[in-house]
Amino acid sequence: MLANGWRLERVVLQVLVSVVAVAMLYPVLWLLSSSLKPSYDIFTDPSLWVHHLTFANYVSGWKGIGGYTFARFFLNSTVVAGLSVAGNVLACSLTAYALARLHFPLRRLWFALVAMTMMLPFHVTLIPQYLIYHELGWINTILPLVVPHWLGGDAFFIIMLVQFMRGIPRELDESARIDGCGVWGIFAKIVFPLCVPAVITTMLFTFYWVWDDFFSQMIYLNDVSRFTVPLGLNSMVDQSGNSNWGGLFAMSVLSLLPVVVLFLACQRYFVEGIVTTGLK
Amino acid sequence: MRQVAISLERSLARPRRRSVRSLQEAVAAYAFMLPWLVGFFGLAVGPMAASLYLSLTDYSLLAPPHFIGVANYVRIFTQDPSFYQSLRVTTLYVLLSVPCRLLFALAVAMALDQGIRAVGLYRTIYYIPSLMGGSVAVALVWKKVFGYDGVFNHFLSLFGWQGMDWVANPKTVLYTIVGLSVWQFGSAMLIFLAGLKQIPAELYEAASVDGASRVRRFVSITLPLLTPTILFNLVMGIISSFQNFTSGYIIGDGRGGPLQSTLFYTLNLYLQGFSYFHMGYAAALAWVMLIILALLTWLLFATQRYWVFYFDGQEKG
């Protein structure tokens, strides 16, 4: 009797969890199906089923704005994201190695400062940073978006890498030192290769934050030829108002695709990153 | 073999050699940290000092900054209705979205922890909104889902309810933005799931033997042991929600409309700094925001001894 009650409860729970899951996914599925519907169907037919399959939205959306197609926006986004990922991995892992493995004066203080910058809202430094980039003539280039990553701007990853490096046995360092490795050699040949899981997490999150970033890209890029995907999407609304939602949805689907594919392929690293550092 | 070699080397190393090595190591450490140090001073400490100075000036990017003392701060608190409006919008958003997101996250994490089938699949599905929710693309979808001819109204009409344009209505638009935030409960859920896994099973077994009901077990075991996780999620949730920008900008009209109902704090700051070029004033707004966030964080940590429970055995368990 008791066992039966327990079982029923589980079935109910399972059904409930599934219903919530479908509700959660509904907006995403609706976006996908709308992008494949002719525009006259999008707002009249709320079902997910596509009655008249068409790729016209993808063709019209791809045309972009201001004479630039989405090929340009995707290229720009990819360049910004790629350079940011490379910089972040290098700067964060170097800093993390020093903080986790080397003995030097003020180490604790530096670690505390890294942790503090994690909580610092970037708005406090926004205006002076803008002025610096303005002075350097970097406005309307990708440099203000990329350079901070080469300077270890995301303290989250430093903390995560430090935690990971502390777990690597120190005996490996010692034996490498005896084999004649210097500090750099130990980093490059021992510690960094063993950190690959944490490095992958860093890469994935950096990519996806930069790919989805809107605020900084809007502030620093004004010329349509420099636009990234989020800026392209945003200006399609500005310009066409209500007219081409089909094209907008099609490009939205394409813009979400890289992030979703990466997530599904590397889920383990995402979960690891969220659980250890509370990344979003 | 290696152990022997290590201890041999240690005993042979003379004090002087060791100090040379430690000096080398310190130099190497600072070399490794060089990129971060440049960023820390050039992009964080320096600009923070500069922004503090700018907040005391009238500066429009065209003419050099003109020192005006605390006039910007006085204006913020006494003569700027848009500051209070942005604070009202943001506070309402934080107060609604952060607790709702945490409640949802905890409820779903508890449900997934009951040993149902295909947990991995559900975890993936629930996380997907967190993955894409911050993007312009999803904010655009949201704007249409809650528009007059959107899916949400179609859904309501199934029950015979008359919908409206939730996004154009200044009374309701903020709730759609809160909804978008709550929809992204997946990352908090993953953190809760990890927290639940750390609670020793013996505690539940002991409680069951003593005849504790499920509600009792939740209140007396699960909830207290999750309070550190709740604190962590609360702090991170408040800090990030307070800085929300994209969803308000896209779902609203980008200028705070309709009727300033989407004038988030950061949007107000952006408009002041980058549309009206009141750079000094925007810097002052940023400092006020930093102080508000610091106070909130301090408050949460200061009160934690009354409600956050650190279980000694948790480390070992």
From TrEMBL, chain A:
Question: Mind telling me which Gene3D superfamilies this protein's record contains?
Answer: MetI-like (1.10.3720.10)
Membrane association type? Multi-pass membrane protein
Any keyword Ribosomal protein?
Answer: no
A single Pfam family, by name? BPD_transp_1
Q: Which domain of life is it from?
A: Bacteria
Sorted UniProt keywords? Cell membrane, Membrane, Transmembrane, Transmembrane helix, Transport
Q: What is this protein called?
A: Sugar ABC transporter permease
Q: Which organism is it from?
A: Alicyclobacillus cellulosilyticus
